[in-house]
Amino acid sequence: MPLADDLVYVYATDVLPAGTVFGDEREELVRRFGDWHEPIPALLRAADPGMIIRNDVYSFDTPLPAFHRGKVALVGDAAHAMTPNLGQGACQAIEDAIVLAHVVGHAQRNKGGDAAAGALRATGGAEAPGGPAPRSAGEHLDAYSAARLGRTSKVVRQSMSICRMTKVRNPVAVRLRDLGMSLAARTMPDMMLRSMDEVLSWRPPVGATDGDERHRAEGR
Known about the structure:
Layout: H1 25-33, H2 40-46, E1 68-69, E2 72-73, H3 77-80, H4 89-109, H5 137-166, H6 171-187, H7 191-195, H8 197-200, H9 210-217
Antiparallel strand pairs: 1-2
């Protein structure tokens, strides 16, 4: 991924015991991926050793029952840790923040009106049932959990399914996987994009951007 100042962000994953540390992380990367096609070996050899970050990857096998308890809400990896294979970790955290801000803001603006949950209508997201106005922070956060739990669980599973494919080590299985992906790329080039439709089609809850629209209309 190109960044500013002629920098390039690169990440790689491999199967190792948790907590593994190497004396020279760059040389270990070159050893593992140096026989890949260019420019991958060149990028690895040009990497500044001081900028290489090695972390274990975590993913929730079982979704949390809710993303809140009492007045405390979880967002991002704290709520739904996932593998990096879809590039959705930070994206889902941003969605969490938008929905959480919408739920709390809507509840504050409508204390005596419709429930915050009733306003959660988002393309690709869950719609929580309406009802009497919530009377506690926990009830506001029920709407947040209801809106986000199903969607993020699907993204976690989809990312993990790709991760499992990348962890194949049997030479025959690797060959079959690579041939299948190559064939799919030639015969159905848009298949990968279509598989991401549900992930990429998410929209903020109705009313979540009303304030921005108002400010633009008023020239602020």
